[in-house]
Amino acid sequence: MANYYTDHPSLAFHLTHPLMKRIVELKERDFADAKEYDYAPVDYEDTIENYNRLLEITGDVCANIIEPNSESVDLEGPHLENGRMIYASKTFENLDATRKAGLWGLSMPRRYGGLNVPNVTFSMASELIAAADAGFQNVWSLQSCIDTLYEFGSEEQRQKYIPRICAGETMSMDLTEPDAGSDLQRVMLKATYSEEEGCWLLNGVKRFITNGDSDIHLVLARSEEGTKDGRGLSMFIYDKRQGGVNVRHIEHKLGIHGSPTCELTYKNAKAELCGSRKLGLIKYVMALMNGARLGIAAQSVGVEQEAYNEGLKYARERAQFGKKIIEFPAVYDMLARMKAKLDAGRSLLYQTARYVDIYKCLEDIQRERQLTAEERAEMKKYARLADAFTPLAKGMNSEYANQNAYDAISIHGGSGFIMEYKSQRLYRDARIFSIYEGTTQLQVVAAIRYITNGTMLSIIKDMAEATVSDELAALKTRVDKLIAIYEDALAYVKELNNQEAHDYLARRLYDMTAEIVMSLLILDDATRAKAEGNEELAAEFSKSANVYVRMAEEDVVGKAAYVKAFNAADLKSFRAAEPAAEA
């Protein structure tokens, strides 16, 4: 029987990374839960085995329920009835299956009914579900909003809401509005405290809300009268049981049809303040968005995998001119690049997730006791790494998902354009990944300060100190040359001392940074797999490293040449149109 987890051994490989021991140590805290919960692990090996069992269950549900339902969900989609969103019928089956399998509240502590798994494991489950149906992954993965409530809500709120999510209730984050898309400082949904009701009342409209008719919402609203910027915004918890919110419209989208995107009207909707006033955008939304961006990275890797699977399968079966098309260089080149992007992108995803896990675990421990000086330094180190890597993981993987889905259609030829083939759905689903939760351009904005201030160059040089297996030494030498080229291009941009030029060239620096990082990561994966005695996986990663490093050479050398030939005086000629003159 098919299983989306065990069918891809490279996933389990990422649970053997050396940082996992530190993550488990911090997450399980001397395995104290084993005294109270019979399902809690007793040591490191038991913990990893628990993660594997959980992911095997997830892989089984994905292969045998969610994926078989995906076409029906795509065709039916959600619909609107009397101000309520109704899921596609097969989505209800998916929800029921994931609830029965215990796949809700995964990241939450056991005392609230969760499984206490780290971001790495949650991201793997998320990747698997996305491969089966990217639209349903949105519905399921929004349970991670509970992490923000856990971090910033009161203990009373935790006791009230977290067990419900662990039991399978759904969540949404209600941020954007008709006049506030990426610019969330313009949010105007009004929050007014009612002495009579003893709670906050929310009034206004939210738009483009994923899973907008969920059970529990985290809502960004303006609590400070007379303000117009982010300092007047707070975060609120809205419980659907309270009423006061209706669905006015469900968007008809290009893809991810199983994921309802709603326009909501709030009319005196009762809500609770989450955390402190005025920190809604400044602190809480940033935490929400970072989690969501990691979720989109996982979603993207899932679709990268599925697009590669579809392309590979078709290329092996389809014959033209007397032989299978997989034998044609134009086709096997495309497949090799798809696989290299998948393996490198996956490695970036899980490296980022590991960084997030370490600093988040230490933050959680800090709520209970004072950290040692060493722990504070460790938390600061991994928080910085997570902040620097998250926009790379989201931006690059969302672009790779689009590219792999595009190439899967190309491999299918005319058949790929036919609705009966899955590749067209993957292509439609993938298009949103580089748009929502911050476009790729916004990921560049988030990452660029770590690039221009030299942080990423320092990280890259540290990564480059790692040894590689003998057969990869020549590839490593080529990457070292790319680092020198990159450093030279970065210095040139700094010397321009022109902010507009910096902004214009930022995307090229971002791409170069990410491609060098992923080259080093995939070399490390191949080396580590060989050291662990996994010859088959080592050979697979080595092939991807060989392809990916050559791709990086194409891109880094070309973009460095563009940067070095750039003259800030020419910026005017690059503008599509001059801004209109002021009256």
- Regarding quaternary structure, how should these chains be classified? single chain
What's the gyration radius in Å?
A: 24 Å
Helix content, binned percent: 55-70%
Number of strands: 11
Q: Which consecutive residue ranges, at least 5 long each, have pLDDT under 50?
A: none
Amino-to-carboxy terminus distance = 69 Å
Class per helix and strand makeup: alpha+beta
Number of helices: 18
Order of helices and strands: HHHEEHHHHHEEEEEEEHEEHHHHHHHHH
Mean pLDDT: 96
Largest sheet: 7 strands, mixed
Overall shape: globular
Strand-residue proportion: 5-15%
Account of the 3D structure:
With about 575 residues, the protein is of the alpha+beta class. The protein has 18 helices and 11 strands. The chain has helices at about 10-15, 20-30, 45-75, 90-100, 120-130, 135-140, 145-150, 155-165, 280-315, 330-365, 375-410, 420-430, 440-450, 455-465, 475-495, 500-530, 535-565, 570-575, and strands at about 80, 85, 170-175, 190-195, 200-210, 215-220, 235-240, 245-250, 260-275, 320, 325. Strands 3, 4, 5, 6, 7, 8 and 9 form a 7-stranded mixed beta sheet that branches. The chain has a two-stranded antiparallel sheet with strand order 1-2. A two-stranded antiparallel sheet has the order 10-11. Helix 9 (about 280-315) packs antiparallel against helix 12 (about 420-430) and helix 10 (about 330-365) crosses helix 17. The radius of gyration is 24 Å and the shape is globular.
